[in-house]
Amino acid sequence: RVRYAAREFYNREQYVHFDSDEGLFVGDTPHGEKVAKYWNGKPEYLEQHRTSV
């Protein structure tokens, strides 16, 4: 099984990551939840990450 890992950091803290099992971004901090909601609302951006798996 292959998993795609896309993680975003700010100030050495991970705030959002892409869950390849779900095919969605997941927020790890309150700010990351807002970013994940925004990115999950962009179908073309999600598709780009889903096809990278």
From TrEMBL:
<dbReference type="InterPro" id="IPR014745">
    <property type="entry name" value="MHC_II_a/b_N"/>
</dbReference>
<dbReference type="GO" id="GO:0006955">
    <property type="term" value="P:immune response"/>
</dbReference>
<dbReference type="InterPro" id="IPR000353">
    <property type="entry name" value="MHC_II_b_N"/>
</dbReference>
<keyword id="KW-0325">Glycoprotein</keyword>
<dbReference type="GO" id="GO:0042613">
    <property type="term" value="C:MHC class II protein complex"/>
</dbReference>
<protein>
    <submittedName>
        <fullName>MHC class IIB antigen</fullName>
    </submittedName>
</protein>
<feature type="domain" description="MHC class II beta chain N-terminal">
    <location>
        <begin position="1"/>
        <end position="53"/>
    </location>
</feature>
<dbReference type="InterPro" id="IPR011162">
    <property type="entry name" value="MHC_I/II-like_Ag-recog"/>
</dbReference>
<dbReference type="GO" id="GO:0019882">
    <property type="term" value="P:antigen processing and presentation"/>
</dbReference>
<dbReference type="Pfam" id="PF00969">
    <property type="entry name" value="MHC_II_beta"/>
</dbReference>
